[in-house]
């Protein structure tokens, strides 16, 4: 039985050679799903699990990576108290109340609501362009000061949540074909069921450009050190949004797994380009 290092040498050599099998079975056609991200992620993991006969997983984009500002409202609660309400394209809402030491002119409040809505609508949450808009050199005096104060409301626009982990095919690892190669099957199933550790592990590789591997003892999660994880990031041209991959025994068809994961990541990237790329 090869060691973890032996499997690593084999996989590195195979990837370096550039010779990968064709994987015609992964046909997702995600463009037809448009903005149904949840359905797209589930179809991806189902197709990947079927092709590889392994556990397939994928992380959905976190809201802060894809959300845009849908609408902004500035309302006067009291003469000296103003609330800023922002609504993101994902449905997330931010609400920030500002209390001033003096009465605020109602006309200034109405102008600020119109200005912020027109200036920020459609911009990506957390985009540097927001700072540019809020620091508009064309604004002077009371308007500039008021906008600078209210701009704090957009620092942490999107709340917690998102970035869900999708899993498909966990029962495949318990089949007669794979179970003999899984000496720690119970620990593995527990880790997959809890999901949080796997999700964190995949997010830690969000900055990688190519396909990545954790083989045996290389896995950051102790419960996964009896298996191999193969993943690849998907996203837009200028940033990764999430990862897709498979989990399987050390003795697996690495060539097919790598090719399948790469193709799934490519299809997800194409899908998200149509959704968020414009």
Give a verbal description of the structure:
This protein is of the alpha+beta class and 278 residues long. It has 2 domains: 4-61 and 163-276, Beta-Lactamase (2-Layer Sandwich), CATH 3.30.450; 67-154, Enolase-like, domain 1 (2-Layer Sandwich), CATH 3.30.390.60. Helix content is 38%, strand content 21%. The chain contains 9 helices and 8 strands. The strands form 2 sheets. A 5-stranded antiparallel β-sheet has the order 5-1-8-7-6. The protein has a 3-stranded antiparallel β-sheet with strand order 2-3-4. A hairpin with a 2-residue loop joins β7 (227-236) and β8 (239-249). The longest helix has 23 residues, at 254-276. The termini are far apart.
Task: Provide the CATH superfamily of the largest domain.
Answer: GAF domain
Are there runs of 5+ residues with pLDDT below 50, and where?
Answer: 31-35, 158-162
For the biggest β-sheet, the strand order reads: 5-1-8-7-6
Radius of gyration: 24 Å
Tell me the helix content: 25-40%
**DSSP helix count?**
9
CATH architecture title of the largest domain: 2-Layer Sandwich
The CATH C-level class name of the largest domain? Alpha Beta
Question: What is the string of helix and strand elements?
Answer: HHEHEEEHHHEHHEEEH
CATH topology of the largest domain, by name, is: Beta-Lactamase
Number of domains: 2
Major sheet characteristics: 5 strands, antiparallel
**Average predicted local confidence, pLDDT:** 83
What is the percentage of strand-forming residues? 15-25%
Helix/strand/pairing category = alpha+beta
Shape, per Cα inertia axes: elongated
User: Could you tell me how far the N terminus lies from the C terminus, measured between alpha carbons in angstroms?
Assistant: 50 Å
Q: Would you count the extended β strands for me? A: 8
């Amino acid at each position: 039985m090869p060691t973890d290092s032996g499997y690593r040498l084999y996989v590195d050599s195979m990837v370096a050679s550039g010779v990968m099998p064709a994987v015609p079975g992964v046909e997702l056609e995600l463009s037809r799903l448009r903005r149904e991200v949840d359905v797209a992620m589930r179809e991806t993991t189902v197709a990947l699990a079927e092709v590889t006969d392994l556990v397939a997983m994928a992380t959905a984009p976190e809201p802060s990576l894809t959300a845009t500002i849908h609408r902004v409202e500035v309302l006067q609660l009291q003469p000296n108290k103003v609330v800023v309400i922002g609504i993101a394209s994902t449905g997330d809402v931010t609400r920030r109340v500002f209390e001033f030491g003096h009465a605020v002119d109602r006309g200034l409040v109405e102008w600020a609501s119109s200005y912020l809505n027109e200036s920020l609508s459609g911009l990506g949450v957390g985009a540097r362009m927001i700072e540019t808009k809020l620091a508009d050199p064309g604004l002077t005096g009371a308007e500039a000061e008021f906008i600078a104060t209210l701009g704090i409301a957009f620092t942490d626009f999107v709340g917690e949540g998102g970035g869900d982990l999708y899993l498909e095919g966990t029962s495949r690892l318990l089949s007669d074909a794979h179970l003999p190669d899984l000496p720690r099957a119970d620990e593995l199933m527990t880790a997959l069921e809890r999901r949080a550790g796997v999700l964190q592990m995949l997010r830690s590789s969000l900055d990688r450009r190519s396909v990545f591997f954790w083989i045996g003892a290389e896995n950051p999660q102790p419960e996964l050190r009896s298996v191999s994880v193969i993943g690849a990031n998907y996203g837009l041209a200028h940033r990764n949004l999430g990862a897709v991959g498979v989990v399987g025994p050390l003795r697996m068809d690495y060539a097919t797994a790598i090719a399948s994961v790469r193709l799934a990541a490519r299809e997800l990237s194409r899908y998200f380009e149509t959704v968020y790329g414009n």
